[in-house]
Every structure is written in C-alpha cells, then in structure tokens.
Amino acid sequence: MTVLHYANVSPFVVSEKTGGIGRALLAALTLHVNMLQAQRGWLPANWGVLWSLSVEEMFYLFFPLAARFFSRSNFFPSILLCFVALGPFARTIFARGNDIWAEQSYLGGMDAIALGCLTALLVCRVHFSRTALRAIAVAGATLILSILVGLRLTYVPPIAKSGLDMTVIALGTCMVIIAAAQTQWKGPRLLAPLLRLGQCSYEVYLTHMFVVFALFAIFAKYGNQIWSVPLLFVATVIVAAGVGDIVARFFSEPLNRMIRERWSDGRRQLGSVSDSRVGSAGL
After folding, report:
1. pLDDT category, 266, cuts 50, 70, 90?
2. What pLDDT is stored for residue 224 in this prediction?
3. Interval 185-190 mean pLDDT
4. Could you tell me if residue 218 is inside a domain?
5. How many Å apart are CA 254 and CA 183, to the nearest integer?
6. Contact 67, 76 (CB under 8 A)
7. Rounded distance, CA 195 to CA 161, Å?
8. Domain of 223?
9. Is residue 260 part of a domain?
10. Which residue would you say has higher pLDDT here, 95 or 188?
11. What span, in angstroms and rounded, lies between the C-alpha atoms of 33 and 51?
C-alpha cells in the first residue's frame, strides 16, 4: 500500500488531511488506525480495514496476561463479562456522537471477542444434550438473522441505538458455534467452497480492496455498462476469494505452523473449539 501511495495510484494515496503516509504507517504499526480515523477521518479503503487489526491486536497483547494471572480463579470469566457489558456503551454513550469511533473503538469490538472466549470455556466445561444443542442452534441462527435480515428490512431503532445489535449477532454466532462444536457438525460437500471462504475470510478481508479497485478500474475503462454490474459483483467475489486463499495457503498457514511447531505443542492443525482434543488446559 505504501508503494502504491508513492506510485500515486489514486485509491491508495493517503491525503495530508489524515496526516499523510507517515502518520498512517505509524498508526498501523502501533495499533491505532481506529483512533486516527476517528480523529482525522477515513483513510483510503485498503488502509481503513486495518482498524480491526488495531482492536484485535490489543486483545492479543493483553489477553495472555489476563489469562496468566486470573485463569485459575472465577475472576477471569467475570473480566470477560465486563467487556461484554461495556460493548454497547462503547458504541453509544462513550462514542459521544463520533460515528467512526462508535464503530471502531477498542471497547466496541471487545464484547464479541469476550463472548468468543466465554464460548470456548463453556464448550470445554459443559456438555449439552442433543435436544439442548438443537435449541441452541435454532436460537443462535434466529438471533443472527434478526440482525442481518430483520433489522435491515424493518429497522428497529431501539436495538440499533442501544448498541446491542452487534452484541446480539455475536451472541447468536457463539450459540451456533457451541452447537457445531459439540455435535462435531460438518457441512455438506456442496458447501465446501463457502466453508473454505470462511476459513480464509480474514485474508480475504485484508486484501479484497485490491481486487475491488482493480476490477472497478477495468469496468470503468470499458464503458460502465449497467448490464455488466452483476458480472462485476460475481467476478469480484470470486477473485477476492481466490486471492485470500492464496495468501492463506502460502503465507498465513505456513507461518502459523512454524510458530506452533517452534513454541507450542507441535500440532500442524490450528486449534479450534470444534477440535474434540482441545481441553480446558489447552485454553
């Protein structure tokens, strides 16, 4: 992105209004792209996606310390529950009317992460019956759809204005994870491409704007034909998925294996709550 900035490729040029390329690089390397955008406005799209890394890397820095000192007591789940409770407030009251900070603040993303941690702990410690797991799966899917579909189609202001919409979708997702983990559910072969897309979804997220800008430039060059818009959309999804898969196969996964083999138990497969071998000691 820095090379493209200096090559003056317009979608990647960081304006002086947001502090210039040096300020953007500093924010990216010190995990506060979200703060920079809240203070200065939006960075170019490919830079902008790094806001989520700023939130998540803060979690990865401090979570091991919290786990190290509090995991042997009941205080640890309480800390996670505090983050869950603070999430909606961070997206509303604490944001003080700043729409970017409401979406990208550190605390505003921590409730989903904390719910994921609590889910991992719950899956290892509590075994639900088949009937309970079916009910949990249905309830979780209903919560997800209520936000992704229901809220978009009917728009219920109270839940959106309260900041609970993101907490609800995270809770629903965790419920589906519980059911999938304890039933060892495997998707049908027909859904294998979608499953792979999910497995490398973060690589797709971090690289998709390269594809979007490249294909849109081609689209604009050849006349902006309205009939080709659906084709552009489908092509963008397919190519972005391919790029993400390449990054995962040849960069992310090899590095993960190297790190695990050098500093962990040597397993080549990444850990997962759906791996029946994982116990509470592994967490």
Report:
1. low
2. 78
3. 85
4. yes
5. 29
6. yes
7. 33
8. 188-283
9. yes
10. 95
11. 5
Contact 107, 50 (CB under 8 A): no
Residue 181 in any domain: the answer is no
Res 185 pLDDT > 90: no
Where do we find the tokens 């800008």? 213
Tens of pLDDT along 100-132? 999 999 999 999 999 999 999 999 999 999 999
Token pair, residue 6, equals 């200096």
Q: Is residue 142 part of a domain?
A: no
Task: Output b/e per residue, 169-184; b: 16+ Cβ within 10 A.
Answer: bbbbbbbbbbbbbbee
**Can you tell me the distance from the alpha carbon of 113 to that of 102, in angstroms, rounded to the nearest whole number?**
16
DSSP secondary structure string for all residues of the chain: -HHHHHTT-GGGPPPGGGTHHHHHHHHHHTT-HHHHHHHH-PPPHHHHTTHHHHHHHHHHHHHHHHHHHHTTSTHHHHHHHHHHHHHHHHHTTTTTT-HHHHHH-HHHHHHHHHHHHHHHHHHHH----HHHHHHHHHHHHHHHHIIIIIIHHH--HHHHHTTHHHHHHHHHHHHHHHHHHHHT----GGGHHHHHHHHTHHHHHHHHHHHHHHHHHHHHHTT--GGGHHHHHHHHHHHHHHHHHHHIIIIIHHHHHHHHHHHSS--SSPP-TT-TT--TTT-
